[in-house]
């Protein structure tokens, strides 16, 4: 009985993972979104047209890897802005949780509340463990025309911000630091 239940659960979980949306490829149009940040402002991808967007998905506020990644973006924000980039963090969290996380670490960029995971799903960055869903640690660099310029699916939180800055300098060579 227990063995059959276990096999059924595994099949159900694998079926759920199999229907995940594909990760957008570089060169494709970035999926549109409209989400609220930690300050209650609605942020849309369309509203950011004309600038580079660093759209990073992260699993959970105030955990070691997520904190390291966010603080590195915070510490490098001047360099990112010098390259014409806006940083947006996205998690499957409430706006209030994002506000506490941003305040605690003095994060100078928007943390977007993707409460139902709809945006993470459109970017192929949603993990569903049946009981709980969370955003995978994926980043998408979106160009000023709204196309995916680069995807980061294996993120080292200690080096990620610097990696994006280097890529922006390569992809956006007319900008001077």
From TrEMBL:
Full protein name: thioredoxin-dependent peroxiredoxin
Catalysed conversion reaction: a hydroperoxide + [thioredoxin]-dithiol = an alcohol + [thioredoxin]-disulfide + H2O
Family per similarity comment: Belongs to the peroxiredoxin family. BCP/PrxQ subfamily.
Gene3D superfamilies documented for this protein: Glutaredoxin (3.40.30.10)
Subunit structure, as described in the record: Monomer.
InterPro entries: AhpC/TSA, Peroxiredoxin_AhpC-typ, Peroxiredoxin_BCP/PrxQ, Thioredoxin-like_sf, Thioredoxin_domain
Single GO BP term: cellular response to oxidative stress
Active site positions, chain numbering: 66
CDD domains for the chain: PRX_BCP
Enzyme class, spelled out: oxidoreductase
Domain Thioredoxin: 24-173
Enzyme Commission code: 1.11.1.24
Keywords: Antioxidant, Disulfide bond, Oxidoreductase, Peroxidase, Redox-active center, Signal
GO MF annotations, alphabetized: thioredoxin peroxidase activity
A Pfam family the protein falls into: AhpC-TSA
Record's signal peptide: 1-20
UniProt keyword Disulfide bond present: yes
Function, in words: Thiol-specific peroxidase that catalyzes the reduction of hydrogen peroxide and organic hydroperoxides to water and alcohols, respectively. Plays a role in cell protection against oxidative stress by detoxifying peroxides and as sensor of hydrogen peroxide-mediated signaling events.
GO cellular component: cytoplasm
PROSITE patterns in UniProt: THIOREDOXIN_2
